[in-house]
Write a structure and sequence with these properties.
CATH superfamily of the largest domain: Glucose Permease (Domain IIA)
Shape: elongated
Order of helices and strands: HEEEEEHEEEEHHHHHHHHHHHHHH
CATH topology of the largest domain: Glucose Permease (Domain IIA)
Number of helices: 16
Distance between the termini: 36 Å
Number of strands: 9
Largest sheet: 7 strands, antiparallel
CATH class of the largest domain: Mainly Beta
Strand content: 5-15%
Number of domains: 2
């Protein structure tokens, strides 16, 4: 948006206010004046504003228009009333955000295909003012504000949003402070090149005007997706039954309750659902023996056995005697078995010193197949390799959901890149 010197503020505001009023009351058309393009890029998205607000906003194609410092305009400016809700145009995750009343508040989203969407000049004013003192929930939705850690001004990267979800509010923050409220909206291709978003916004608006819908916005509170309510006195038992296969000990119950009472609910859950929980150990056995995630019924069965006191070594021996294992490893000599174990479990070839040690252990009968697999699956190297998968397996069991899909695993890995386990849990559970 072109910077307008302060001395012309009054004139500009009056002019833009007049034009906006003409649009609202029908004196001017609400359609975009998008210039014809020989080959426009049209991304199928929802409108970045609610369908019901379409008649209160307007935009035109200013792609490529000159801006200060030799820049050109790489977006579409959607003009409208201050605090008009802004919604996610697609199912996406937050890749960058900033809550800053002075420098400007903004949020960037990335969808599953790698397309990015930028929302810039979010609101920075209290209602009915131009004071530049807005609280977070006047720039972003309350849900997103609740996720910002203390001492930070950024929504955790990887936070998921759903198409049509309210994510923020229209304003004039940053270098748009001396213009009328508007959303500067950008679309960036996976290769990093921005494309003219006007045609995509035009197409979404046309679907609405033709009687369709680009989705109803919903101000989404944090949802309870646990199969047992956290307010239920039996919730702590539910957590340990799902992640440990048993009820908590008195010490575990006391520690969980103390963290929860101290305001660290998500940290309490994270302690029970971390990479050292029995559910994670069994998941690693599946990865080690069968190179797959557990099926739901199989995981339920072995978690029940672990809860009854069955050791991981005995469970591993039973895995080693299974038909699935025999098909993969049956008939292999110890040397070949070790080569496969290193590659399948740790993703590398064996170091010769390590292989000689384990080969001697196997040939002498000092360890069994099950025992040596447990040594590998419970090694710090294996735990590092499978950490995010193990965590998500525990989270999915807590929620009473089926095993994670590949896409969910990738989303969880991205979410964990910038967040500790407790924060990632909070974000994940808050989105249905």
């Amino acid at each position: 948006m072109t910077f307008v010197p302060a001395r012309s503020n009054r004139f500009v505001r009056a002019l833009v206010g007049f034009v906006a009023a003409m649009v609202v009351f029908g004196a001017l058309p609400v359609v975009s004046t998008s210039a014809a393009s020989s080959d426009p890029v049209i991304r199928h998205i929802r409108l970045p504003i609610p369908d019901t607000a379409l008649d209160t906003v307007h935009w035109s194609d200013t792609w490529g228009a000159p801006r200060s410092s030799g820049r050109t305009h790489e977006g579409v400016d959607i003009m409208g009333p201050r605090l008009t809700p802004l919604v996610a145009v697609a199912d996406a995750r937050v890749t960058y955000s900033r809550f800053d009343n002075s420098r400007g508040s903004m949020i960037f989203l990335s969808d599953a295909d790698g397309w990015r969407y930028a929302y810039i000049h979010l609101n920075n004013d209290n209602r009915g003012t131009d004071d530049g003192q807005a609280p977070c929930n006047r720039a972003f939705s309350q849900r997103l504000c609740d996720l910002i850690p203390n001492g930070s001004n950024e929504i955790p990267r990887g936070t998921r949003v759903r198409a049509g979800e309210v994510i923020g509010y229209m304003g004039d923050s940053g270098n748009a402070e001396h213009t009328a409220p508007h959303l500067h909206f950008e679309i960036i291709q996976p290769d990093g090149n921005a494309v003219n978003p006007t045609a995509s916004v035009d197409a979404a608006a046309q679907r609405v005007r033709s009687g369709g819908s680009s989705g109803s916005p919903v101000e989404r509170p944090q949802t309870n997706r646990f199969s047992v309510s956290p307010d239920d006195p039996k919730f702590v038992e539910h957590v340990f039954r799902r992640t440990h296969g048993r009820t908590p000990t008195s010490a575990e119950r006391a520690a969980f309750t103390q963290r929860d009472a101290g305001g660290d609910f998500w940290a309490a859950v994270a302690v029970a659902a971390n990479g050292d929980a029995p559910v994670a150990s069994i998941d690693r056995l599946y990865a080690s023996f069968f190179q797959r995630v557990p099926d739901d019924s199989g995981l339920d069965y072995w978690m029940n056995q672990a809860g009854k006191g069955q050791s991981l070594e005995i469970i591993a021996e039973l895995f080693a005697n299974s038909e699935e294992y025999q098909i993969r490893y049956g008939g292999k000599d110890f040397s070949t078995f070790l080569d496969l174990l290193y590659r399948d479990v740790l993703g590398r070839n064996p170091d010769q010193k390590g292989k000689r040690y384990w080969l001697d252990q196997l040939r002498s009968g000092r360890v069994t197949i099950g025992t040596i697999v447990v040594y590998f699956s419970e090694s710090s190297e294996m735990k590092t390799v499978t950490l995010h998968r193990n965590e998500l397996m525990a989270v999915k069991r807590l929620l009473g959901e089926s095993r994670p899909s590949r896409q969910e695993l990738e989303e969880w890995r991205q979410l964990r890149q910038g967040n500790d386990l407790a924060t990632a849990l909070k974000i994940w559970v808050s989105v249905s």
